[in-house]
Design brief:
Length: 291
């Protein structure tokens, strides 16, 4: 697990801030020479896919190792609520079914060096034909949202938040959640920064359980959670199942089920690569790129 990376808040999309700083335990390798050799080997392997002339715009983070140790409910929920601390780059694609509508989401981003990213969303009509494609970009303090003029965004540093600090109630007994900060990556945050769905369905430890400690999915070792949904949502969901990447806390896959067990909403992954080289030239529209 890498050291926490503190991201800044995208003010227009997010709420709240964090007041508690938690320093996680870092396991140091017993053989530093072996670690350096491994990182050099990973970097050399990653650079094989980089074309000549790309190096100035390509960020290649160290490879992330898979975690197989058993995790507690609190440990995995903490990762779900703080994914920005546990990876540096990501490339992915997933299919999303929500409120009866399907979308295909593709994205790339870098959280630390050469910060920026984009997400492309293809919506499908009732005949499973593409009906609309929208792309969101952000880079160097500028955000491009479909059908809107370019705008500036500000990012402020944040810190790790524990579940007991994230979840509270207002004077009337209604749930209140303090969300972690994250970049403006659009709907791709459903998988990369799943703070809302995590808080909605896992804040009550008595309503869910760890179904399986280790299950491989797209070459990622995930922990499988399943539980009940207290109040049925607009999709009629009564239960849920999450597949969470143990290394990063990314919600790789989820399914919501109705009372008879039918899937009424889902996020199904098609591709997920974490801590791989990304070319930041793709983080802005073509008409904004410098020759």
């Amino acid at each position: 697990m890498r050291k926490p990376v503190y991201l800044k808040l995208f003010v227009a999309l997010l709420i709240g801030g964090c007041s508690n700083t938690i320093t996680g335990d870092v396991e140091l390798p017993s053989n530093k020479q072996s670690e350096n050799t491994l990182q050099q080997s990973n970097a050399q392997q990653s650079n094989k896919d980089i074309k000549p002339g790309q190096h100035e715009s390509v960020f290649s983070p160290p490879k992330q190792e898979e975690i197989t140790n058993e995790m507690t409910k609190k440990e995995i929920l903490t990762k779900l609520l703080n994914t920005v601390d546990y990876f540096e780059t990501a490339i992915g694609k997933f299919e999303l079914l929500k409120n009866g509508k399907k979308s295909l989401v593709e994205y790339q981003l870098s959280l630390t060096e050469m910060e920026g990213g984009y997400s492309s969303v293809t919506d499908y009509d009732s005949n499973s034909k593409p009906s609309r494609v929208s792309i969101t970009y952000y880079k160097d303090g500028k955000l491009w949202i479909p059908d809107k003029s370019p705008r500036s965004y500000t990012i402020h540093s944040g810190s790790t938040i524990m579940p007991e600090d994230a979840f509270s109630k207002d004077p009337h007994g209604a749930n209140v959640t303090t969300y972690r900060e994250r970049p403006p990556i659009g709907i791709a945050q459903s998988s990369l920064f799943p703070y809302e769905i995590a808080s909605n369905y896992t804040r009550d430890y008595n309503q869910w359980e760890i179904e399986k400690q280790n299950e491989m999915l797209l070459n990622h070792n995930t922990i499988v959670l399943k539980g009940n949904i207290k109040s049925s949502n607009s999709q009629g969901a009564k239960t849920f199942r999450f597949w969470v990447d143990k290394d990063s806390g990314i919600l790789v896959k989820y399914e919501l089920y109705d009372a008879t067990g039918n899937v009424v909403s889902y996020l199904h992954p098609l591709e997920l690569k974490v801590n791989v080289p990304v070319d930041t030239k793709g983080f802005e529209p073509d008409n904004q790129k410098k020759n």
